[in-house]
Amino acid sequence: MSAKTVRFALFAEVFAALAHPKRLEIIHFLGQEQHSAGELAERTGLSKANLSQHLNILKARGLVHCEKCGTFCHYRLTSPKVLETCQLVRGLILEQMEITTQQRAELVQLPQKDSA
Q1: I need a surface site. Which of 5, 10, 16, 32 has the fewest CB within 10 A?
Q2: What is the C-alpha separation between 32 and 28, in angstroms, rounded?
Q3: Nearest Cα to 68, choosing from 42, 37, 33?
């Protein structure tokens, strides 16, 4: 496999990790501040088991980091570029899709720095 093929395969793996609404929601919350698994489960409405699966995918792709504090794990984004990537895609969607006025208003109302 060529270096170019490997590079594009890695890109695809990162985008695959971002290709789930709940994982994007997790990134949104972690873009604001670090959270424990319990806090993320509560905010996203996911069971702890389901949240764990999503966090494992994000960790495996190097998008989220886990720091153990006693019996708790605190999660944070590995880089601000993770959130920036989501914001770029959001901007692309706003530019390229024709969406209803209400949907556009909902997307535009999201704070630029904190939205995924």
Answers
A1: 5
A2: 7
A3: 37
The residue count for the chain: 116
Distances in Å between the Cα of 113 and the Cα atoms of 2, 15, 88 are 37, 20, 11
* Tens digits of residue pLDDT in 35-85: 999 999 999 999 999 999 999 999 999 999 999 988 889 999 999 999 999
- What is the C-alpha R_g of the chain? 16
Tens digit of each residue's pLDDT (9 = 90 or more) over 88-97: 998 888 777 6
Place of tokens 């630029």: 112
pTM: 0.78
